Structures are given as structure tokens and as C-alpha cells.
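re the bet — no i am not wrong, look at it urself. input seq straight from the record:
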Amino acid sequence: MSRVVAIFDVDQTLVQGYTERLFFRYLVRRRRLSLPRALAYLGKAACRPRDRFQDKTYLQGLPVEEVVSLARQCYRQDITPRVSPAGRACIRSHQAQGHAVALLSGSLSLLLAPLQEELGADWLLATELQQRNGQFTGAINGLHPRGLNKLHLLQELSRTQGFDLSQAYAYGDHIQDAYLFRSIGYPVAVNPSWRLKRRARKHGWPIRYFTR
């Protein structure tokens, strides 16, 4: 019998807020991202909002080792206080039942690695940054975990790890998570956006609220 897995979105589900935005502000605060460069990036993102999921040029040219260190500092200072106690308790409940845990997020993998360690999650599927000669290029590797891409990444993980999605649990807050929910045995809308709340009521998906 395959192991049951519980899949958790991070931003606005386990963590109040958006972790990459917190990191962006942290880099500006620490003066590793200049204000003119930050404003130029935000201006570009405003003009082409869909590109922001692939475009990580605000990190272009920065040393990998330094950014990883800054990400861990940001996690300790700005993200840890935003992790929901109810979310932690939900994960512990699944682990107590012998379930595996996967974090599935569009945020940066290097930023969420400390969360994976802290929660004892088995897998982390998040945005992987492209590197060259010890620096970030500003591009990403592979799929950006959002919408249908989340489902594709999870299907690949299920094939390699041998778990059954029809027996899996999934927790998410955004309408983009509905693609995943339709292929999961036990979806749960957490802190849902109004569109996901409407969809959850239509399909009879449970609605929960994880608070700080």
C-alpha cells in the first residue's frame, strides 16, 4: 500500500503573506538590492505581470552563497513569525498518522528550505533559480510551480515516489490551486480567496482558516 501524502501550499496558507516579497524587501533593507534596481524591476513587473513568475533578474549577478545566507537570515527574522501555529499543528497531525508531507510553492526554493527543515517535510517543490559560475543568472530552472504546473510537478513526484494522488490531501488558498484540487482525493481550501471559496462551496471541499 502506498504512503499517504499531504501537500501544503506556503504563501497565504502556512505563512501569512508572500515570502518572496518579504525577501525582496529584506534585500533592499540590507542594501544588497539597490533602490533604483528594485524600482526598475517593479516597474517592469507592473508592465508585464505574468513575466514576474519567470523573471528573477533582481537577483542577477548576486553570489549564490551570499543569497542563500541572506535567505536564511530573512527566514529567521521575517518569515518564521508569520508561520501559522494552526498550520504547524495540521502538519504534525498528518505526520503522527504516518503521512508524508510535501511543500508545494511558487516561492523560491532557497527561501523555503529552512521551512522544510523546521517542519520536517519530506519534499519541497518550489522555484529553482538558475546558476552560472557561482552567481544567479536571473532565470529559473524548470517549471514555475503555479496553476497547472503544480499539478504536473506533483504528478511527476508521485510517479517517482510511488504515492497515490487519489489518497492524498492538499491545502491551498488560491484559485490557481483548483487545478491541483481536482486531481486530489482530499482537497482543503485554507484562508481561501473569494474565488476559491466559491469553488470550494460548489464542490463541497472543506474550508479551514490557519491563523497566526
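see?? The two ends are 36 Å apart (CA to CA). told u. also The CA atoms of residues 175 and 196 lie 5 Å apart. so pay up
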